[in-house]
Amino acid sequence: MEGMPMTIKPRGEPNLAIRFGAATTRSLNEIAKAGTVSTIKLETRHLSVKYRDFTAVRDISLSFPERQVSALIGSSGSGKSTLLRAINRMHDTNPAASVEGQVLLDKQPVYGAHVDPIVIRRRIGMVFQRPNPFMKSIYDNVAYGLTFSTKLSKREIHDRVEEALRGAALWDEVKDRLDDSALALSGGQQQRICIARALAVQPEALLMDEPTSALDPIATLRIEELMRELVKRYTIVIVTHNMQQAARVSDITAFMTMGSDRAGVLVEVGPTSRIFTNPTDPRTEDYITGRVG
Amino acid sequence: MAQAIVGRRYRRRVLVNRLMLVLTVLATVISLVPLVLILVYVAEQGIGSLSIDFLTHTFRPISFGTTSTGGGVLHAIVGTVIITGFALLLAVPIGIMAGVYLSEYPGNAASTAIRFCVDVLSAMPSIVVGVTAYVLIVQRVKSFSGFAGSVALVVLMVPIITRTTEEILRLVPQTSREAAIALGAPKWRTTLTIVLPMALSGIATGVLLAFARAAGETAPLLVTVLGNNNLTYDLFGPMQALPLLAYRYTEQPYTVLNQQAWGAAFLLVVIVLGINILVRIVTRPRSHR
Question: ipTM of the predicted structure?
Answer without folding.
Answer: 0.82
